[in-house]
Write a structure and sequence with these properties.
By secondary structure, this protein is of the alpha/beta class. Helix content is 44%, strand content 18%. Helix 7 links the parallel strand 7 and strand 8. Helix 6 runs parallel beside helix 11. It starts with a strand and ends with a helix. The mean pLDDT is 93. The structure holds adenosine-5'-diphosphate. Keywords: Allosteric enzyme, ATP-binding, Cytoplasm, Glycolysis, Kinase, Magnesium, Metal-binding, Nucleotide-binding, Transferase. One of its GO terms (molecular function) is 6-phosphofructokinase activity. One of its GO terms (biological process) is fructose 1,6-bisphosphate metabolic process.
């Protein structure tokens, strides 16, 4: 007899979540399981917003950003009562296992359900690339490409006016989007939470660039360091520097996923269903060295995020090629 698998998306949305839902639904149905979509994350689970999904429910979904299952924050899930309601609904619908697509908060929810005997597997979905147990999360590549497109456009105007631009990108407490878009756009400076910054050096670099005939200076600032306007104020206080500020904001969360995110989502969704068939629970899928892997969620959460070493390596590369 096949399994009865629930699938939900939780926390912040990310492009490619839909492609992951599609992979879970199709792989499960292919293997003879029944699949149930749960709308609005853990809130919908507790409230019983649950419907059976057929293979055609996920047609034409891979190319769409956002999540067809919607997402929500539901702090009550940290309390026993919230989880009791959720488990009651799972029992009512005869759902024996759950695929949770989301960030580390969503993983904590999945781990606590696993501790209460519900079979769960997590899939890392967030643009911030800050989830443990994987080198890349679904949505990161798309967000970087969206940001790059915008930064390239800002560069055109920055060159025309010999201007300094501060561009604030997302990433929560991680500098991954900043590092990737900084290198990708040839930015003069990248400022990330994982590395100290020094205003003397920043201003010296801008001035050195001008002496070398640079037409503009682009500073990519990770939101985890501070807000773009705050940084521009500091530059002004430091040396009367007038920097223009662009906050890219939520455009980075939307749009059609890139090939990379669609494929990653398909691999993760496929692996999640395989893991459920193997009887795994309280685990999350990830990618490491181009291999799809799984890790115990609690172990992953204790490992303090994914390896930031590679981001710092990239950061160092940029400091040597951006003059
Ligand atoms: P993300 O999954 O993107 O990190 P959040 O941190 O907002 O986003 O978490 C998403 C949801 O996961 C929360 O709204 C809550 O329902 C659930 N959650 C978060 N932390 C916990 C926790 N410690 N225990 C149980 N559920 C949690």
């Amino acid at each position: 007899m096949g399994k009865r698998i629930g699938v939900l998306t939780s926390g912040g949305d990310a492009p490619g979540m839909n492609a992951a839902i599609r992979a879970v639904v199709r792989k499960a149905i292919h293997d003879g399981d029944e699949v149930f979509g749960i709308r609005y994350g853990y809130r919908g689970l507790a409230e019983g917003d649950i419907f059976q999904m057929a293979e055609r429910d996920v047609s034409d979904l891979t190319a769409r950003g956002g999540t067809m299952l919607y997402t929500a924050r539901y702090p009550e899930f940290q309390d026993e009562e919230g989880r009791r309601l959720a488990i009651e609904q799972l029992k009512k619908h005869g759902i024996d296992s759950l695929v949770v697509i989301g960030g580390d908060g969503s993983y904590r929810g999945a781990a606590s359900l696993a501790a209460e005997g519900i079979q769960t597997v997590g899939i890392p979905g967030t643009i911030d690339n800050d989830i443990p147990g994987t080198e890349y999360t679904i949505g990161f590549d798309t967000a970087c490409n969206t940001a790059l497109e915008a930064i390239d456009k800002i560069r055109d105007t920055a060159t025309s006016h010999l201007r300094t631009f501060v561009i604030e990108v997302m990433g929560r407490n991680a500098g991954d989007i900043a590092v990737w878009t900084g290198i990708g756009s040839g930015a003069e400076q990248i400022i990330i939470p994982e590395a100290e910054f020094n205003m003397d050096e920043i201003v010296a670099n801008i001035e050195e660039g001008q002496r070398r005939g640079k037409k503009h200076s682009i500073i990519i600032l990770a939101e985890g360091v501070m807000e773009g306007h705050e940084f521009a104020d500091k530059l002004y206080e430091y040396d009367d520097y007038h920097a223009r500020v662009t906050v890219l904001g939520h455009v980075q969360r939307g749009g059609a996923p890139t090939a990379r995110d669609r494929v990653l989502a398909a691999q993760f969704g496929f692996k999640a269903v395989e893991l459920l068939h193997e009887g795994a629970s309280g685990v999350c899928v990830g990618i490491s060295g181009e291999k799809i892997i799984s890790t115990d969620i609690n172990e992953a959460l204790q490992s303090k995020g994914h390896s930031h070493t590679s981001q710092v390596d990239l950061y160092n590369i940029n400091s040597e090629i951006s003059f």
